[in-house]
Specification:
mainly beta, two-stranded antiparallel ribbon, 107 residues, extended, single chain, four-stranded antiparallel sheet
Length: 107
């Protein structure tokens, strides 16, 4: 996971030094948390998708586990923020269209 993605979870700032060829992520300070658009997409066995979409910010920090034999995992908690009126989050599920073109109801 790159520094830019980790920065979205914190109030950290990023500094790049082209001469040294380094990028530093510094935690702390008075940097405000950024609101981010979060979307998770799950593909069901049928090939149809379920999409979770939310505008939020990171809360309660995050946890990173480094294990050279596994993927690096970042556990983070997000809090929904009402940036758009009457919207915190949505869950959308793709379903088979009704044969008559109408609403087939819940499945």
């Amino acid at each position: 996971m790159g520094f830019r993605k980790i920065k979205l979870l914190t109030t950290a700032k990023t500094d790049e030094n082209q001469e040294k060829g380094t990028r530093t992520l510094t935690f702390g300070g008075n940097n405000p948390m950024k609101n981010v658009l979060i979307r998770f997409v799950h593909t069901k066995d049928s090939g149809k998708k379920i999409r979770f979409t939310m505008i939020g910010s990171s809360g309660n920090g995050f946890e990173m586990k480094f294990n050279p034999e596994e993927e690096t995992v970042v556990d983070a908690e997000f809090t929904a923020i009402e940036v758009l009126k009457n919207f915190l989050a949505s869950i959308e599920e793709e379903i088979e269209p009704a044969s008559d073109g109408g609403n087939s109801g819940e499945q």
